[in-house]
Amino acid sequence: MSPGRSGPSRTRVAAVAGAAVGGTTALASAAGSLTAAAYFARRVLTPDPRRPDDVVVREVGADTVLLDTTAETVVPGRYGLWLDGGSGHARLGDVVEIDAAVGVVRREVLGVDAGSLHPGTARWNGWYHGGPPDVSLGLATEHVHYDGELGAMPAWVVAPDGGPGERWAVLVHGRGARREETVRALPPLLEAGWTCLVPTYRNDEGVPAGADGRYALGLSEWRDVDAAIAYAAGRGAREVLLGGWSMGGAIVLQLLDRSDRSDLVSRVVLDAPVVDWGDVLTHHARQHHVPRPVGTLARTMMRQRWGHRLVGVHEGVDLALTDWVRRADEVHHRILLVHSADDEFVPFGPSFALAQARPDLVTFEEWRVARHCKEWNTDPVRWEGLVRGFATG
């Protein structure tokens, strides 16, 4: 430094250095939040083709099976087990005994539909039924295709005695589930005289995927179900009952709002539906200790164009459009809404709130004990009676 020329003071140098470090830390924190938000959003929107085994079979008796205890295996009711990577299937009945000290539960075996039930790993099946209606219930089933927006979409058609009529029920399974989830609804609907159509939608197994291969949480999938209604109308349907489980409920609600065919729909059955995706995401963020700002940023990235590439979607996913508590005044169809207060995946609060907001249209039936979409499993007599009564007349 030359004489008579002053340099920066140590205090100023320290301040500048501190600001630089602080700015770098803030940028790193922002980048980390962005990455975490994108990851969280992708987890919500990306189909998961992997279905790993999640149950250990310890012992097989003449008419019982001994399993490790999990949150699922100890709940009363009827369930299934996928065996040998999904090539086999067994149906299980109620709990016989629980040994909490050892961590095992013994359940009834109601039947083995395919493969063999043996010690080892298996996968829990909350739908109970393990195949299409002809396999699971011995019902004459048409395996058809209808023209969807993305191509040919497979579906099942099951008609009541006397053949297809003018009243058709279109039944929509949930996120990551399969059509077998809806089979439980066929007996009461067939008894009430409805021809049952069980469609697929984009990103299902063996079905054309959307352009981005992501779920839109009902905001695009409704168009595939709308095409299924067009197929039913082409075969003589003049009245439609819509049924939806979980995300299938969200799909149904979007269809009722957006489709030109919604006038064909006379009534709706929703089982553990997603009435507000924002509430569901908040619930899962809390469960997985995702900071609230990260969850908020994830929802923004789904909606805003600048976030689409990071999230991996072509169309924006605006969760405000899925909030049917806020949009309750826009509901115009009679709804039977079944939801368990003990649902661990889709909290029942928004369902209850929608019923309170629209008691003129929504009949709310609260369950207890049942986990997500398993109300039928714990009390099939009550569930089928409600659906049969609602569908009759």
Description:
By secondary structure, the protein is of the alpha/beta class. The chain folds into 2 domains: 55-125; 133-276 and 323-391, Rossmann fold (3-Layer(aba) Sandwich). The chain contains 11 helices and 14 strands. The strands form 2 sheets. It has an 8-stranded mixed sheet, with helices on both faces. A 6-stranded antiparallel barrel has the order 1-2-5-4-3-6. Strand 4 (88-99) and strand 5 (104-114) form a beta hairpin. The N and C termini lie far apart (97 Å).
CATH architecture of the largest domain: 3-Layer(aba) Sandwich
Order of helices and strands: HEEEEEEHEEEHEHEHEHHHEHEHH
CATH topology of the largest domain: Rossmann fold
**Radius of gyration over all CA atoms, rounded:** 25 Å
Give the strand tally.
14
Class computed from helices, strands and strand pairing: alpha/beta
Oligomer: single chain
Percent helix, as a range, is 25-40%
Q: How would you sum up the global shape?
A: globular
Secondary structure topology:
Elements: H1 10-45, E1 55-60, E2 64-68, E3 79-83, E4 88-99, E5 104-114, E6 120-125, H2 133-136, E7 142-148, E8 151-158, E9 167-172, H3 186-191, E10 195-199, H4 222-234, E11 239-245, H5 247-258, E12 265-271, H6 277-287, H7 292-303, H8 305-311, E13 334-340, H9 349-357, E14 362-367, H10 375-378, H11 380-391
Helix pairs in contact: 1-7, 4-5, 7-8
